Amino acid sequence: MMPGCPARRSDRRHRDFARRGAALLEVLIALALFVAAAAVVTGALNSSLESLERQKLGTHAVNLASSVMAEIQLGIRAPGGEGRRPFDAPFQDWTWEASLLPVENATGTTAGSMRVEVVVRHKTAPVVQRLAQVIRIGRSAAADALTAVREP
Description:
The chain has 152 residues and is an alpha+beta fold. It has one domain. The protein has helices at 6-74, 139-150; strands spanning 85-86, 94-102, 113-122, 128-136. A 4-stranded antiparallel beta sheet has the order 1-2-3-4. A hairpin with a 7-residue loop joins strand 1 (85-86) and strand 2. The longest helix is centred in the N-terminal third of the chain and has 69 residues, at 6-74. It is rod-shaped.
């Protein structure tokens, strides 16, 4: 065969098309791998952000419950009786409620010790935080608190 022969040209064209096809296939595989990796990274990032938001709301709920418990111990807030109550702004997305139960000692008397349970809830997110503590309050305050709990 001669160097300029049509059969030789067709062989050369076939090899050029094969090289171009292989390069196109490599580009398509690389693109598919990039898209798959981007999807995995995006999913992991989204999951991480959701977890961070849940953790932030949980920590905020614990802080609010601790604040309410401290205010009850100081006599700033009155516990029991009224059900869920909203917080003031900027915490308007949160509610709280507190319940009182007398704690009996070995002789069967209450002696001013009360079990206070504070429940803090978020209005839209599924976050509920409970905090319970036994506190000792004065006799008149204990009687007032028990009366408030027993009244409908």
